[in-house]
């Protein structure tokens, strides 16, 4: 018999709305060989929130964009169809990623900030490590912690016990979640991605971003997300007992990296000009 916590968590995932129909319509249109930008603009314009999101992210300095776009047509031409597809895939979670999470002690916008940094870092690392699809890395990095949106209320009611386990036994958060709640935020995120009919490679990248060697087919992508999450530690807005930034030992093996190469990648990121100054001295 599953624990009461686990049963309630699984029910919360089941109760999530599927990918919105307006988003799936645009995604189908993008995949057509003769896709029309005007058609995409027309479909996106029907959804005010989606149109605002596309414009907002096409102008995001955090994502490396310096040019300002004022129309949807200009925005789509500027970011390209691959990034537009990524924005659409992540759109159902974007607004709720910006809210505060009482259980994880994250204020309004803090999880979104971490997600943006991780997504941007993942894309940069994918390019630096010659991963063939940097957009997959961006989407997976942006959504890697979305399972926390479902787990937050359960973490809140078990907060003291979770913090005690993390601090006393020096365990990463995801292992403590699994022990005390019956499931961790990464697995919950993977289940959400599956409910939204994401490709297996993205489901696995989110599900196994703390243990990339468990991925079913492509271990490189969750390893990149694991490393990106670790790099994001230097850009955190504040400290928290419930954040994990450990690099899994298998990540280095999968990506064929050593400590020296890790430091060179960090330096290369900072030199790229795409990222702000670290808040923790480049740690």
What is this entry, summarized?
The chain is mainly α and 283 residues long.
Overview of the structural elements:
The protein has a single domain, classed as Orthogonal Bundle (Hypothetical protein af1432). Helix 4 packs across helix 5. It contains 15 helices and no strands. Helices cover 63% and strands 0% of the residues. The radius of gyration is 19 Å and the shape is globular. It is an all-alpha fold and 283 residues long. The mean pLDDT is 89.
**Sheet having the most strands:** none
What is the CA-CA span between the terminal residues?
44 Å
Just give the CATH class.
Mainly Alpha
Number of domains: 1
- Percent of residues in beta strands? under 5%
CATH-defined fold name: Hypothetical protein af1432
Number of strands: 0
* Average pLDDT for all residues: 89
Which spans have pLDDT < 50 for at least 5 consecutive residues? Answer: none
Please provide the ordered H/E string of secondary-structure elements. HHHHHHHHHHHHHHH
Annotated CATH homologous superfamily: Hypothetical protein af1432
The share of residues in helices is 55-70%
Radius of gyration: 19 Å
Give the helices and strands, then pairings.
Blueprint: H1 4-14, H2 21-30, H3 37-45, H4 48-58, H5 72-97, H6 110-128, H7 134-143, H8 147-157, H9 159-169, H10 173-181, H11 185-195, H12 200-207, H13 220-231, H14 249-255, H15 259-271
């Amino acid at each position: 018999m599953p624990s009461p916590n686990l049963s309630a968590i699984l029910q919360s995932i089941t109760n999530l709305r599927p990918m919105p129909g307006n988003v799936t319509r645009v995604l189908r249109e993008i995949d057509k060989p003769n896709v029309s930008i005007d058609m995409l603009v027309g479909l996106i314009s029907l959804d005010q929130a989606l149109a605002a999101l596309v414009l907002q992210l096409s102008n995001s300095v955090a994502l490396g964009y310096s040019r300002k776009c004022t129309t949807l047509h200009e925005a789509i031409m500027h970011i390209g169809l691959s990034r537009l597809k990524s924005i659409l895939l992540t759109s159902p979670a974007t607004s709720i990623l910006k809210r505060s999470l009482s259980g994880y002690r994250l204020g309004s916008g803090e999880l979104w900030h971490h997600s943006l940094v991780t997504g941007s870092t993942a894309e940069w690392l994918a390019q630096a490590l010659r991963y063939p699809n940097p957009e997959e890395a961006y989407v997976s990095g942006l959504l890697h912690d979305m399972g926390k949106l479902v787990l937050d209320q359960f973490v809140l009611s078990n907060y003291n016990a979770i913090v005690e386990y993390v601090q006393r036994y020096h365990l990463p958060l995801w292992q403590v979640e699994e022990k005390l709640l019956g499931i961790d935020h990464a697995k919950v995120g993977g289940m959400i991605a599956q409910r939204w009919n994401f490709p297996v490679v993205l489901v696995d990248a989110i599900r196994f971003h703390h243990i990339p060697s468990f991925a079913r087919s492509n271990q490189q992508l969750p390893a990149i997300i694991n490393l990106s999450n670790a790099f994001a530690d230097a850009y955190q807005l504040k400290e928290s007992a419930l954040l994990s930034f450990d690099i899994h030992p298998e990540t280095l093996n999968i990506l064929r990296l050593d400590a020296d190469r890790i430091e060179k990648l960090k330096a290369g990121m900072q030199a790229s000009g795409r990222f702000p100054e670290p808040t923790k001295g480049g740690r």
